[in-house]
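Worked example 2:
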Amino acid sequence: MRILSVLILVNCLFINTAFADEMTELKEQINSLTRAVQSLKSTVESQQKEINSLKGTQNEKPRASAALPAPKPAAQAGIIPGKFTPEIGVVADIVAESANHGLDKETVNRVNVREVELVLGSNVDPYSRLDATVAFTEEHEIDLEEAYLTRFDLPFRTTARVGRFLPKIGKAVPIHRDSLDTVDEPFVVQRYFGEEGLHKSGVDLTKIINLPLPSAHQVTIGVLEGGNGEGGTAFGGARWRPTIYGHLKNYFDIDDSTSFEAGLSDAAGSNDKNNNFQVNVLGLDGTLRRVIDANREIKAQGEVFYLHRRDDPVGEVSADTGEFIATADPGGNFWGGYGLFDVRLSQLWGTGFRFDCVQPVDRLLSDPYKTELGYTGYLTFYQSEFARWRVQFSHIDRTTGAGDNRVFIQGTFAIGEHKHKLQ
């Protein structure tokens, strides 16, 4: 009996020892698994912080960052550089015009394919992108509107453009015609810079300025070839005399649905008389935007340009007396501007009004302060994101005292990849 008791005691001791060893091993496995989970959690948190840092200020200020996106390398922006086929898009701008002025008999009282744009773009590598826009007209003309390289992630976190592009002067000049709120450019842009705006070759640098404020700021400086766009009169015609420009853009959130954008521009160039910068254009623009819901929005926008130009009077020498008789004075101080009020009524409909006022550069000496006034109303039907119809009426009080009326019916259509959506 004693022997049996001893055997039972020894067996219990052995079982307890084995059970203790198993429990110790199990605890070690649990601790190892816990450490692995903590390590994985730390790795995920580290990666999430890196993702948030790459997003910049988008999480903190979604609307401000949308207005002024911080430049970043294409690789950080999620762009795949290994594409061999570029983004290709085509935009057709068809306009029917009826007018009583008869200044341009080629486009009055007829339907005109104003232009067809071929838009190309792709990433060259993770740090640069190439964009080009070629315009074809009904008169068999080909115009290279844009062809520029954008280089990201330069020193001091700047972004550079080199080639032919729309300079960031004011609010309307940098916008493509298919993205305007009206059929034509504001009169001050047409008269001073060109009928289709300003497309120039050059180089510029852009930098986002981050301040501890509920706002976003962007500074751009650049050097362009001289001259104007077609019909422009601000600068001389020599392309080899450069134009220097700068632009400051400021964006502010007033509340969750209201924003305000203010800009200051300055461009200095030549009038072809000499190499000095005898022409200076100072611009001020402002845009107040109120978003009602996903389909309704109200926008009030305005721009004013002040032009200072030193030049000699225009005229002819009298055959009788040999004296110079001045008929116009392109020198002096001029100004022009516009005010635009645009209402997006629904997803499909929008309407608005634009008021123009501009002093011509080649003003008559008989009435040097005469201004040209314009009154424009329009109604827009947004068939889709890539198809838009617009009816527009404009009345113009010209400096000669004559009044002109113009009626436009415009259809703008886009296919393929196109960065300027018809909104």
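Helices lie at 2-55, 62-67, 187-192. Residues 393 and 407 are 5 Å apart (CA to CA).
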